[in-house]
# Entry
Amino acid sequence: MNEKDSELMAMALNQAREAAARGEVPVGAVLATADGRVLAQDSNRVEALSDPTAHAEILAIRAAAAATGSPRLGGLDLFVTLEPCAMCAQAISLARIRRLVFAAYDPKGGGVEHGARVFSHATCHHAPEIIGGFMESDAATLLRDFFKERR
Amino acid sequence: MNEKDSELMAMALNQAREAAARGEVPVGAVLATADGRVLAQDSNRVEALSDPTAHAEILAIRAAAAATGSPRLGGLDLFVTLEPCAMCAQAISLARIRRLVFAAYDPKGGGVEHGARVFSHATCHHAPEIIGGFMESDAATLLRDFFKERR
# Structure
């Protein structure tokens, strides 16, 4: 991981903070080219959009696909503040994303290193390079503070 | 399964036929209330929308959630012509759909009875009632004819 990776994850963390300020579970995502050009960034908007699929990763993938005019995003890297759920993991596979970098692990809702482990099955057509736990403590603190306030 | 269920799956099959006519992998989905009122129906639009997440199920879920103003669709039944992939299965779980009825099984891409088996993990927060193979031959024929023509 290099300085550019840290900048991109910091950008995803800022997205997550904006989600928290809106009362959404704080998760942010950034899609960038291999040399660090940002194509899309967004945060969780499930409540605001009344859309159960409006996770940060899905919104970023849809925006980048619309921007590039192709449903296939090979060559792009996804930075996300929380381990993706099975929905987002499969969307990452379908979009053929090159590299998945996530911060906090999610033992309850994650679908990469936990639960459905979407990329670990023989039938998975495309698995990205996966880096978990990058800048984990920043994301974990954000999530913990959010849920503490809501209790 | 009753006559209303057959009508709803026939509607999903018509959606799939429309997708095939547009050159999309033929999959259709219908979301209905328990008494059979249709809230949303759509088909695969991955290529048309340049959106890797634009599977029939996701589009129907997003439309029904927008129509009802809630990301939670408890009480609704989803009729889909092909076993959902892991992305769609997790979206079904997040949306708390009551019943999932699908036609053809998908050993290569399915995430319900194959691969990630999204609903079978201890961490899965909500699993619908699942009926697989309903009006299977109609959907299988449609898919086979589509891929035969493209070879």
Observations:
- Chain B touches chain A at residues 46-47, 49-54, 58, 61-62, 65-66, 68-73, 85-91, 94-95, 107-111, 114-118, 121-125 (CB under 8 Å).
- Chain B has four helices and five strands.
- The radius of gyration of chain B is 14 Å.
- The first helix of chain B runs from residue 3 to 21.
